[in-house]
Amino acid sequence: MNREGGCSCGALRYRLTAPPLIVHACHCRDCQRITGSAFVINLWIEGEFVESTSGAPRSCTLKGGSGKDHDVFFCATCGTYLWSRYHGVPGDSLFVRAGTLDDASEIEPDVHIYTRTKLAWLTLPNDVPSFEAFYELSKVWPAESLERFRRNVAKHAAQSRGG
Ligand SMILES: [Zn+2]
Ligand SMILES: [Zn+2]
Questions:
Q1: Confidence grade of residue 63 (pLDDT, cut at 50, 70, 90)
Q2: Which segments within 48-134 are labelled E, that is strand?
Q3: Radius of gyration of the chain (CA)
Q4: Which ligand sits nearest to residue 25's alpha carbon?
Q5: Residue 102 Cα, ligand 2 centroid: separation in angstroms?
Q6: Whole-model pTM?
Q7: DSSP 8-class letter at 12
Q8: How far is the CA of 30 from the centre of ligand 2 (A)?
C-alpha cells in the first residue's frame, strides 16, 4: 500500500507509518456534505502514525453524524480536507480521507456505516458488513486492530493523567 498523500495544491503532504486499524465508508449526511459526494472513505488510524511531511493543516470544529463534535483538518490554500478527529472516540485517532492518498486504488472499505442516509441508487457489496448507524468494534475489527486500539487508548489515558 502506498501510504503517502497530500492536498490538491501540494502545500500539505503526509505519510502514514502504519496500516489503518479499519477502513470506513461513511454514508452520513455530514460526510456527504463535506466531500460533496455519496460517501467518504476514511482510514481510521492512530494519530502517532500520521506524519505531516510538509505544511501544517488548519482546522475547524463541526458537529458529526453522532451529534458529537469533530475537528476537521484542511489546507488553508486549496481547502482539501485531509483528516478528522472525532471527540467521541477515545485515545488519539485520526480519520484520514482515503481519496487524498497519492494512490487509493488498493483501498477497500472494511465496513459501511450510517447507511440509513445512503443514496438509493448505490448498491453495496453483500460480503462487506454494513450498518444503519455505528457498530460495536469488537464485532467487526480483526483482533490485531482491537489490540492496537486498546493500547492507544491506554497510552492516551496515561498521558492525560500526566503519567
Ligand atoms: Zn492545498
Ligand atoms: Zn460520516
A1: confident
A2: 50-54, 58-63, 69-74, 81-86, 93-97, 111-113
A3: 15
A4: 2
A5: 22
A6: 0.94
A7: -
A8: 6
Burial 78-109 (b: 16+ CB within 10 A, else e): eebbbbbbbeebebbbbbbbbbbbeebeebeb
- CA 100–ligand 2 middle distance (angstroms): 17
CA 146–ligand 2 middle distance (angstroms) = 21
**Nearest ligand, CA 116:** 2
Both ends of the chain: CA-CA distance in Å?
A: 35
The closest ligand to the CA of 8 turns out to be: 1
Ligand nearest to the CA of 77: 1
- Cα-to-centroid distance, 11 and ligand 1 (Å): 5
pLDDT attached to residue 134: 94
Length of the chain measured in residues = 163
How large is the average pLDDT for residues 14-43?
96
Query: Which ligand is closest in space to the CA of residue 29?
Result: 2
Q: Which three cell numbers stand for residue 112?
A: 459501511
Percent of the chain residues topping a pLDDT of 70: 96
For cell 478528522, name the residue.
84
Band (74; pLDDT cuts 50, 70, 90)? very high
Q: How far is the CA of 146 from the centre of ligand 1 (A)?
A: 33
